[in-house]
Amino acid sequence: MSTKKILVTPGDGIGPEVSEQAVQVLKNLAPRFGLQLELTEKPVGGAAYDLTGTPIPDETLEAARNSDAVLLGAVGGPKWESLDFSVRPERGLLKLRSELELYANLRPAVIYGDLVNASTLKPEVVDGADLMVVRELTGGIYFGQPRGVEVRNGERVGFNTLVYSESEIRRIAKVGFEIAMKRGKILTSVDKANVLESTELWREIVTEVGKDFPKVELSHMYADNAAMQIIRNPKQFDTMVTTNMFGDILSDAAAMMTGSLGMLPSASIGGNIGMYEPVHGSAPDISGQDKANPLAMILSVGMMLRYSFDLGEADEIVKQAVVKTLETYRTGDIMAEGKTLIGCQEMGERVLQFLEQE
Ligand code: IPM
Ligand code: MG
Questions:
Q1: Which of 48, 137, 340, 350 has the smallest CB count inside 10 Å?
Q2: Is the beta carbon of 131 within 6 A of some atom in ligand 1?
């Protein structure tokens, strides 16, 4: 048995509900793969702010640094929107990402089974689509300095900086190529090189890194075109590598292609400790009502087992159990005719049931 320390940070809104189900799945699978779990729970986001006055208490950061992997629910909500920027729930998440040096965020958008009918796009457009968005996560306009709001010439001016160093681009490009090598060997690098110098450099460096990966077919696409192409013909994509902000936007679009934001998991890697979280937010409109879809979070557990503990087989088992569950059961966001509508907790229980059979 090898012991794994997992920090669970449920966060806000539906975060705690979906985390609970994901933890059950993790507990179920761990012993089957020789893992002994040491689970710790700490607050992050608005929940942490309410308790301690900061969205990322030192205690949570410390626990994250001392863990083997972090499982995060979601952060944010209207309750904290009027707070000063420096203590908003989102700052907690961004701090975790940067402190743990999680510069690569993997967001796989896949259509699970007959969920093809839950997409707002035509079935023939999305059926078989399988896109991995590799998003840069610790740089770009999210972190660039200078930033702020100040008075200039008698009026307020808001500003942020889009900045990427060669080394930052090189390391995320490398992850993009490595992931593409394990998939369909087609990599689309998304930038806005026609307008932004920083992404002109991005394009140059990605091309350079590509020389070390001659088997990968590399192409470049402007971000606006990429947004259009995800909706027009998502099947043309295999692996996409892009900046922090373009990745944020395009991964939501890719998620929606699969039927619901409630289906998309993510893995943040690059440092010594991986962090796993659903792509969706805290969905305050449905929180506490047992309506949330826990599948993105459950699939994030699968990604943890694959990327942090090298248990790809366990990840496959999770995905199989999710596909089987979806054949009969649905939460509201992916409900379809002929299926049985259930809540968050029951969805978790159904997945567990199918896991036992895998
Ligand atoms: C995401 C979210 C976050 C982001 C927010 C909550 C800060 O939208 O993970 O996609 O913008 O990165
Ligand atoms: Mg987002």
A1: 340
A2: no
Please provide the CATH number assigned to the domain covering 120-258. Answer: 3.40.718.10
Structure token pair of residue 135: 């998003």
Quick: pLDDT tens for 127-181. 999 999 999 999 999 999 999 999 999 999 999 999 999 999 999 999 999 999 9
Within 13 Å, how many C-alpha atoms sit on residue 307's CB side? 29
Q: Kindly tell me the burial class for residue 223, based on how many C-beta atoms sit within 10 Å of its own C-beta (0-12, 13-18, 19 or more).
A: buried
Pocket test for ligand 1, best of 88, 242, 248, 261 (most atoms within 8 A of CB): 248
Q: Are 87 and 51 in contact (CB under 8 A)?
A: no
pLDDT single digits (tens) 9-61:
999 999 999 999 999 999 999 999 999 999 999 999 999 999 999 999 999 99
The kind and range of the H/E element at 289 are none
- Which architecture characterizes domain 1-110+260-358 according to CATH? 3-Layer(aba) Sandwich (3.40)
- pLDDT tens profile 278-308: 999 999 999 999 999 999 999 999 999 999 9
- What residues does the ion ligand 2 have nearby, CB within 5 Å? 248
Own/partner pairs, 50-58, CB within 8 angstroms, 24+ separation: 53/87, 54/87, 54/92, 55/87, 55/88, 55/89, 55/90, 55/91, 55/92, 55/93, 55/95, 56/91, 56/92, 56/95, 56/96
**What are the structural domain ranges in the chain?**
1-110+260-358, 120-258
b/e for 338-355, b at 16 or more Cβ within 10 A? ebeebbbebbbebbbebb
Pair of tokens at residue 305 = 């087992």
